[in-house]
Amino acid sequence: MRIVLVGPPGAGKGTQAAYLARNLEIPHISTGDLFRANISQGTPLGVQAKSYMDAGNLVPDEVTIGMAEDRLEQADAAGGFLLDGFPRNLKQAEALDAYLKGKGITLDAVLDLEVPEDEVVKRIAGRRICRKNSAHVFHAEYSKPKTEGVCDVCGGELYQRDDDHEDTVRKRLEVYHSETEPIIDYYKEQELVVTIPALGKVEEVTRRAMSALGRGE
Questions:
Q1: Residue 111 backbone dihedrals phi, psi, to 5 degrees
Q2: Of 161, 171, 188, 215, which one is the catalytic site residue?
Q3: Residue 13 annotated to the active site
Q4: What Rg, from alpha-carbon coordinates, does the chain have?
Q5: 107-150: per-residue pLDDT in tens?
Q6: Contact in structure between 99 and 72 (CB atoms under 8 Å)
Q7: 0.85 exceeded by the pTM?
Q8: Is residue 200 within 8 Å of 181, Cβ to Cβ?
Q9: What pLDDT digit, counting tens, does each position of 36-95 carry?
Q10: Distance (Å, rounded) from C-alpha 56 to C-alpha 26?
Q11: Given this model, what pLDDT does residue 216 score?
Q12: Catalytic annotation on 36?
């Protein structure tokens, strides 16, 4: 299957993408991984991306599109893929369509993870990260540490990232609404969008998505 996963920040895209890709036996291709791989390998696109990032500028769509197309050329993506974080805007969506058309293939579905905005803010603003190990993540409401401000795993200090403050989260949502949300209407015109309520346990959301794809139990 060839799938695009969309949804606001805090919708759980990364978590769901990993589960779905494993269940569907297709590669999970995320924008973050594309950037890290190209930059660490020193590819021409990675060098370009790093120069923009080092200067504090946004990476142009052309560079991101190039990275995505290069990744889709790899053998493991021949039988399907799950795109997470790409396309991020209409220009990228149109470029993806043109690329796939050139290959004689199409998307099977665009999964739209739907979460109320207040819940998004609550999810992100409540996150607390361990300073010693950023993989240790807690939540002020949903996953409290035994001792406030202290990581249960290693005893490190828990803190709130600058990106996770409520005002910053709301600005990120504004960007999502203005730049990414329009691609949902774009794909609705192609009758590809499947809306998945993303509230509830991770496993429940995965089951809803698999069922919507016709791969339920």
A1: -90, 120
A2: 161
A3: yes
A4: 18
A5: 999 999 999 999 999 999 999 999 999 889 999 988 999 999 99
A6: yes
A7: yes
A8: no
A9: 999 999 999 999 999 999 998 989 999 999 999 999 999 999 999 999 999 999 999 999
A10: 34
A11: 64
A12: no
Phi-psi region of 82 (alpha: psi -120 to 50; beta: other; left: phi over 0): beta
Q: In what order do the strands lie in the sheet with 127-130?
A: 137-139, 127-130, 158-159
Known catalytic membership, residue 208: no
Tell me the helices (H) and strands (E) count for the chain, helix number first. 9, 8
As a whole number of angstroms, the distance between CA 30 and CA 35 comes to 9
Give percent of the chain above pLDDT 90: 89
The yes-or-no verdict on residue 174 having pLDDT over 90 is: yes
What band does 166 get if pLDDT is binned at 50, 70 and 90? very high
What is the C-alpha to C-alpha distance for residues 121 and 167, in angstroms, rounded to an integer? 9
Q: If DSSP codes are grouped into helix, strand and coil, which group holds residue 190? A: coil
Q: Which listed residue (2, 122, 127, 208) is catalytic?
A: 127
Spatial separation of the C-alpha atoms in residues 44 and 30, rounded to whole Å: 19
Q: Judge whether 90 and 98 are in contact, CB under 8 Å.
A: no
- Is the torsion defined by CA of 113, 117, 118, 120 positive or negative? positive
